[in-house]
């Protein structure tokens, strides 16, 4: 992975994290620590998006970063991790 691919995945993660944390208020606890962890886990989800969801829309990609699967991966991984932490916290 080159630096531009890293930045693209970071941008996707940042946008998805802002929407989920500040717009939808979907978090375990409010605050910047929760937001920063969302950005990190969102990047991991965006990175796993193409291998898991596939390679869609050849025209909307950079190198091996497919944008639509990366967005879906970021959203899915953030929902998954937030739900897991909420489940463990309430148990």
Helix-strand blueprint:
Elements: H1 3-23, H2 32-53, E1 61-62, E2 65-66, H3 67-90
Antiparallel strand pairs: 1-2
Can you walk through the features of this model?
74% of the residues lie in helices and 4% in strands. With 91 residues, the chain is mainly alpha-helical. The chain has one domain (3-90). The chain is built from three helices and two strands. A two-stranded antiparallel sheet has the order 1-2. A hairpin with a 2-residue loop joins β1 and β2 (65-66). The protein has helices spanning 3-23, 32-53, 67-90; strands at residues 61-62, 65-66.
Bin the strand percentage: under 5%
User: Shape from CA axes?
Assistant: elongated
Helix segment tally: 3
Please state the average pLDDT score: 93
Low-pLDDT windows of residues: none
Oligomer type: single chain
SSE sequence, one letter per element: HHEEH
Number of strands: 2
What is the spatial order of strands in the main beta sheet? Answer: 1-2
Number of domains: 1
Structural class by sheet pairing and helices: mainly alpha
Question: Could you give the distance between the termini?
Answer: 39 Å
Radius of gyration: 13 Å
Biggest sheet character: 2 strands, antiparallel
Share in helix: over 70%
